[in-house]
């Protein structure tokens, strides 16, 4: 898959795993193939307890064992000459820790006096499973993926603040709201099953918004659970971009359309600025300015309205030779082209449009 597509792997201890030598050995195979992205801690020890060095931990037990495992994983990776340059991602669901082991930090600050020593290093990036539909905030609502990506307490799902700001289980203090904004962070699970109001169409549109919201709000990597539906367990089998028989869902088609519209084989070392305004922009409208290596700007504007739509005007500081508008839900060809204009009107609902200049 790496050779075919260029994808890279975050390689982790999995659910209940504690075999660090196995992880390093597998990581070296991936590194030798150029396919390693990062190492990752255990998956959701609040759901899958573990045993490490003869001690049990996680779930409702002490999390000291979990903390020791994560710290040892970090030290093992950084002590290996071949692997030391690769980042270590934290474990997930550390907001559930029962005792204050400091897992809400990348590195425990001096003077914390927690269950693990000051200066204990756990990871280079914090990890979240910030599903935008969650038991703590069910249903379909405005700004669904935008709020899930929020680094502060405005996030009403299982997000960054509840795991690294003030832990959701025991309310242990971690990073401040200001610190969380620029904290190196990744999402290793997110998504929604097709059920009720979450139709296949709605899921597909939300997945487009998810990637944009996460990127805009400074998440370094985002992985949706999951690429192809699992066929080895019951329930939760409509998360995927693909059905078990590899038939693509609308989510796969729409995302492929968006990446095709934005595709660029080269890079822009020094992106230019573009002066524009979105008049009276509602709080459910968001924008992201990109620049292609050929110099063209691609302004992505998306709505996060649960139902209905809103019209906005995008005005540019000077006339543009040509403006093209793309809608990834409709395909990869421009749906509108305007020449010598300084304004474009967009009708936004629940997915992005790309304005190319």
Automatic annotation (TrEMBL):
InterPro entries: GH (IPR017853). Gene3D superfamilies: Glycosidases (3.20.20.80). SUPFAM superfamilies: (Trans)glycosidases. This is Glycosyl hydrolase. It comes from Mucilaginibacter antarcticus.
